[in-house]
Amino acid sequence: MDVEGAGCRASPLLSVSGITKRFGGITVLDEVTFDIPSAKVIGLVGENGAGKSTLLNVLSGMLAPDAGEMHLGGEKYRPDGYGSATRLGISRIFQDQALILNVPVYANLVLGQEARFLRAGLFLDWKAMAAVAQKMVEVADIDVDVCRLTWEYDFSRRQAIEIVRACLAPIYLLHVTRPIVLMDEPTSALDKKDEAALFRLINRIKSFGSVVFVSHRLTEVLAISDVIHVLKDGRLVATVDPHVANESTLHSLMVGRERVSDYYHESRQCDARENPVLLEVRGLSRREKYKGVSLKVKSGEIVGIGGLLASGKSDLGKGIMGLEAPDDGSVRLEGLRQAKPEIRRLIHAGVGYIPAERLIEGLIAQFRLSWNISMAGGDDLFASRFGRWFEGKEEEVASEYVKKLSIRGGKPNIICQQLSGGNQQKVVLARWLCRKPRVLVLDNPTQGVDAGAKEEIYQLLRDLTAAGAGILLITDELLELIGLSNRIMIMQSGEVVAELDAPPDAKPTEKNLVALMLPASGKLPPTPPNAEMLAPST
């Protein structure tokens, strides 16, 4: 592979001109034009519903444009499906994971290319498949046994597996010399170690191919991109040099207004020290997940829980809600007797829960928006005691929260699959807000949500606490954890190792929290040595 030569070509790898896409009477992409040069990272930012995922769908052959042209390597490019695009060297990391969980990792890494491993035209050479897959994970610097079943790995490591497939399958399986990798929110589910491995991999891909990088984490986009394109309402409204831009610049271009200085509305943080306790957790334990966790959430208070991805914080949230029964301990809600948590009982008592894995646990994407919102109220809020369904109320509530949460493209009868990831997240939030909850347990509630929509959600959380609700906030976003919380609890290996006050005028720093999240040595896990050049051996 002529790595040096590939990086010096003047013509773009992919040229996009006047791409337009409509759904019904709505224009989702409006004459979008840009180039993807060789050996570059192209940042792509915009609000939820701005057209980012639709554009990636067009580039990856999943949607045909209604107008416009594309040229790949100087030749007209109009793939008839994702497989066609992949064979031509354009692969993709999807916003939501697309892995088969009950097969070995190596089967996912070579998925769709099994014919290349046939012997005598009849038998699959599993050893050869595993050998290629092992080479790919070694080059990507991720710690994975390719012979283990995929479901045995946590969400972060599964995301890393998907990244390896998109980045390296074109090279090792299809022998593409100048790949283009489309990355849609690739870091949203990664822990710090896997995230660092991704950024190293992107830098290696730049030596001969290109990356289109989509993320709502604007700091990442600014740090890794060579150029940034901004989409708004389906139009490419600006092209920005990341070396002279900042988060405020991008936010203003994306949403049409300056980002407020009090982004987390810290000035509205309630002084809840003397308020009554709404939720009390005592000695909650689940084998190999968390041990002896006790905490209290008061009226008007946001209690944040932070920790590394494997700290047990998400498992704790599921345990508190009774989704995964704890082995020991109790959860007490004001007005209810102390008992082991049971989700139906807690929902009726006014507790809501937003999970981290939206499409797996949060909503049914093939259902209507109104059905997803009414899902938690089917036996009380939207039905009579005799089972009569209040369809009119369901439609009315759905319309109310579409407006209140600014769900783009939303209407009661739309299928949630047709909404962007961030707007799907708003639907999950609406399900609980419509129940006027006393306590909310939130696990990464703004994952996949753009900066403008995050600000709106933060405002809603402050409204809830001002009305007396309590919130348990589990999040991987350190600034969110710091900015929103009254108190912060840090977990490590399933145990609470620290608790910090976080008043508006004396917030802890990211450095403070990271030091508490890491093992006692205070050192990050060792970084694997750089892998050899990506070009496969011949």
Biggest sheet strand line-up:
6-9-10-3-11-12
Structural class comes to alpha/beta
Strand content: 15-25%
Biggest pleated-sheet summary: 6 strands, mixed
Task: Summarize the amount of helix as a percent range.
Answer: 25-40%
The whole-number mean of residue pLDDT values reads 87
Overall 3D form: globular
In short:
With 538 residues, the chain is an alpha/beta fold.
Main features:
538 residues; alpha/beta; 6-stranded mixed beta sheet; 18 helices; 31% helix; 22% strand; disordered N terminus; disordered C terminus
Descriptive report:
The protein is of the alpha/beta class and 538 residues long. It contains 18 helices and 21 strands. The strands form 5 sheets. It has a 6-stranded mixed β-sheet, with helices on both faces. Helix 16 links the parallel strand 18 (439-443) and strand 19. Helix 6 packs parallel to helix 7. It is globular and about 70 Å long. The termini are close together.
Topology readout:
Blueprint: H1 3-6, E1 14-23, E2 26-36, E3 41-45, H2 52-59, E4 67-72, E5 75-76, H3 82-87, E6 90-93, H4 105-109, E7 118-119, E8 123-124, H5 126-139, H6 155-172, E9 180-184, H7 192-205, E10 210-214, H8 218-224, E11 227-232, E12 235-240, H9 247-255, E13 277-286, E14 290-298, E15 302-306, H10 313-321, E16 328-333, H11 343-348, E17 351-354, H12 358-362, H13 369-374, H14 391-404, H15 421-433, E18 439-443, H16 451-466, E19 470-474, H17 478-484, E20 487-492, E21 495-501, H18 510-517
Parallel strand pairs: 3-10, 3-11, 6-9, 9-10, 15-19, 15-20, 17-18, 18-19
Antiparallel strand pairs: 1-2, 1-4, 4-5, 7-8, 11-12, 13-14, 13-16, 20-21
Helix pairs in contact: 6-7
